[in-house]
Amino acid sequence: MVDKAYLGMPIEEFKRVYKEGKFIEEPVHEYGVDGESMGLKVVENGEPVLFVWTFEGDDKVSGITVLSPKVTVDSTIYVGATASDFFKRNPSAEFEVHMIDERFELGYVKGKNYTVEFLTTDSTRVGNYEYGDSQPKFLRLKRPDAKIDRITIENK
């Protein structure tokens, strides 16, 4: 459960529990999801809260992206917390540059179904990486004060 939403929740139920919200269709690829479909961003009191998407042909929530600092994940992780905060709470965390869209840098913990996301560029990366033949290997935090921009929850 994330705020009032959960993975596998029917979209109609999602719309009912966020009945005070405004729903805006946005492309899933803007949230680092591979595909050309649209998802729903819910905005309450003028503030974005969540973005959800389904797999094509399904009416159940397949993924949730937290956009509001008022929503916590894993009891202590929230949008606006720092990379250092995340690392301190999760010493085994790993970071990587998103394989599909390099605008996103991700922090994750094996065994947990969420990733923290930082919107970065080559010059503003949160981590130092060793670049080789494959995916860059995370070495250490370069910008420990970088703030989490989003948190995505999905079944892995």
TrEMBL record:
It comes from the Bacteria. This is Uncharacterized protein. It comes from Pontibacter virosus.
